[in-house]
Amino acid sequence: MFTHTIHLLEVVIKPVYLFNGQPLDLKKQELAKQVDDAKDLAEAVESGNREDIEKFSKWAVKVTKQHNEDCNRLSRLMGLPMIDAPSEVEARCAALCVLGKVYAVASEDVDSFNF
Known about the structure:
The chain has about 120 residues and is mainly alpha-helical. Helix content is about 55%, strand content about 5%. About 5% of the residues are buried. It starts with a helix and ends in a 17-residue tail after the last helix. Strands 1-2 form a two-stranded parallel ribbon. The radius of gyration is 17 Å and the shape is globular.
């Protein structure tokens, strides 16, 4: 995160970082499936199936509360705005765009397309 932020600042882009709040009920069901993804990753590693290892590695990553707190603190120390969304961050990002508060949204999460 730090390196990406530095590159953005070098080209005069001031990022605004947002963090998810409580997931919606439907999203909670999907998050529960991630436990199975971690098991699938372990099986793929054991069998040596490179294609499955790559696929499940992307899904099995778990961001902890400590990760979020560290990123939040680093961003504040750099003077960047931080927003904690009450629920899905993609909805808040879309609202900020509609209101003209930000120019664009960048995310690896395809949920952004819903908004």
